[in-house]
Design a protein that fits this description.
By secondary structure, this protein is mainly alpha-helical. It has 9 helices and 2 strands; from the N terminus they run H-H-H-H-H-H-H-H-H-E-E. Strand 1 and strand 2 form a beta hairpin.
Length: 265
């Protein structure tokens, strides 16, 4: 067994730092009037509709990050850490490995997310935690049951790293992959519809995932990170329109029958 190297430690810490920095930017922007026109829910709704306090969410996320660091340390020791990795990896090779990891992780997350909603035991005891947040916001992106975090994030991320070859590559490449996942996770929970309309059929965003957090959409839109393609292919997509709120104060989501289509989607 090998010790954790400085590179391994940096690769583990960077995504966590990015999580708080990027969600902090979103929270700061949330107080800017210029952002109101992109907001899917009002600030008041974050407090009135959500079933868990932001203090509890903060404690949960910090706990998950501590678990994440512990898991990375254990996995690094068991797999040999940086000592077993190539000393040099071309940018092209690293980019290819990251792309593969993204697809593998995204597919895994979709499969787990769909199972978590279709299996009553898993939903009741694990995944329902995440849906205590009815109106998503940035730093609550990974709020959930710690056991589900191990299954969905730690196990899924480890599978993606191993399947893509990142485990034998530079720790920096792994850090880039995990950081991309972190940023995208915050983007789909930030509550701001910033994604251009023409990309909504391919790329996940706050609107697509916001529909999933609605009572009517909870059994649809399981694509959980990067691509909405999984919902399109497996018939779990619930069409929606992003419309202006009456009075022009922000945006709202209007769901449609599953087989309908919308020019606004």
């Amino acid at each position: 067994m090998a010790a954790v190297t400085v590179e391994d430690a940096v690769a583990a810490v960077v995504p966590i730092v990015v999580y708080w920095a990027y969600s902090g930017v979103h929270m700061a922007l949330g107080h800017a009037r210029v952002i109101d026109k992109y907001r899917l829910n009002s600030k008041d709704e974050e407090d009135s509709k959500n079933m868990v306090s932001k203090r509890a969410v903060l404690a949960n996320v910090l706990t998950q990050h501590a678990m994440q660091l512990a898991a990375v340390a254990v996995l690094t020791v068991l797999t040999g850490g940086g000592r077993g990795r190539a000393t040099a990896t071309s940018y092209l090779t690293a980019a290819r490995q990251i792309a593969v990891a993204v697809v593998v992780f995204d597919a895994y997350r979709y499969a787990w997310h769909r199972l978590a909603h279709r299996n009553r035991f898993i939903y009741r005891h694990l995944h329902s935690w995440h849906h205590r947040i009815v109106v998503p916001y940035a730093f609550g992106a990974i709020y959930g049951h710690p056991l589900e975090a191990l299954i969905a994030d730690t196990a899924g991320g480890s599978l993606a790293v191993l399947a893509s070859g990142l485990s034998s590559s530079s720790p920096c490449a792994t850090a880039v992959f995990l950081t991309l996942c972190t940023v995208q996770g915050i983007d789909i929970h930030c509550g701001l519809s910033l994604l251009p309309r023409r990309l909504r059929w391919v790329w996940n965003g706050a609107a697509h995932h916001g529909v999933h957090h609605l009572p009517r959409g909870v059994r649809h839109n399981f694509s959980d990170l990067f691509f909405v393609t999984w919902d399109m292919v497996f018939g779990t997509h619930l069409p929606y329109a992003v419309e202006e709120r009456p009075g022009g104060e922000g945006l709202m989501l209007r769901t449609m029958p599953p087989k309908a289509s919308s020019k606004n989607n």
